[in-house]
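SEVERITY: medium
COMPONENT: batch folding queue
REPORTER: lab tech (J.R.)

DESCRIPTION
The queue accepted two submissions in a row. Attaching both inputs and their returned structure tokens so the on-call engineer can compare them side by side.

ATTACHMENT 1
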Amino acid sequence: MQKKSKLLGEIGGIILALSIIPYLSFFSIVGILLLLIAYYFISREFERKEIFSNALWACLIPSIFALITGIIVAIFITSTIISFCFSTDLSDFESIFFSGKMINFYILIAILWVIGWIISIVSTKMWKKANTIIAEKTSESLFSTAGNIIYIGRWLTIVIVGYILS
């Protein structure tokens, strides 16, 4: 493996790991971009386009879902606030949070959370595929092990332990 791709991957991984520190989460974008560049160089070196393809889709699918989810939630919250302002007595705080509109919002959030969890599993499966191909080409089993740990960690996110692994 070229030193350039290895160095980019190492720096990207370190920056991505630092993104869990509060106020440093914006580093995650930089870390992911560096990792993607490293995967691109590795896929070109081994002439296996599916390495970069899997890594790229593993990043794009959750990003697109997050964007769509943000738009849906923003529209729902805005329309709910506007309708409450024109139709409900805002002095009754309890009736606002347990009204039919808010119950629908809570159900929407739960459904989006489940869909997001499934999408994150699909995404980590793609990372695992990319890492498995790299492990086969380099004879370095740590790539495969890293892919497995991330994949298992994502399945365990339903339990808090998974956030630590992934």
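ATTACHMENT 2
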Amino acid sequence: MENNTIKAVFFDLGKVLLRFRHEEIVSRLLSAADDADDKADGLFDFLFDSRSGLCNLYDEGNISSEDFYAEIDRRFGLGVDYSGFVPLWNEIFSLDSDVADLMRRVRGTRPVYLLSNVNELHWEHVAERYPALSEMDGWVLSCRVKAKKPSPVIYDAAKAAAGVGPGESVFIDDLPENAAAADSAGIKGIVFTGADTLERELRLLGLI
């Protein structure tokens, strides 16, 4: 039976609609650097530490792409200029076609939106590369909202974009803490573990 209470569904981008690995980013960025093996762990933490990682600033739109590159190169000596950095940074994604198909099925009954922690370079790249994203009804991006999940700010922005109130939307994310924060913001959180499980959960909720 179709669920008439849920008026919108939000999908995460990375590790839900698009596959990628942080470790691959580090490996690619150091592909032209001297002593790459010695730098890998340090670069990973420098970028992705949950509290102090530079990607926190970048994902929230608080540092430019050029300055982001310059900070990494100054610290780790990447051995490439900015024009060489961009494809190394960007070309890490692949579409999960099964999840994209589920998104389209959900959109057959109600609006679907992207809700993602994403930086400007990655967003420009994937928006051009993956047409499935243009089929969505809107995009709520951390680099535009200037707040990252699990901050309540980005969930409030998502509800405003979709025009929904508490209990009227669903969010699918691979991280339990982000799904839990959505619940706290009045958006039902689903933890993504795979397309097959997601299909069952969406069916149980009456969304497909």
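NOTES FROM REPORTER
The chain has two domains: 8-19+94-204, 22-90.
No errors were logged for either attachment.
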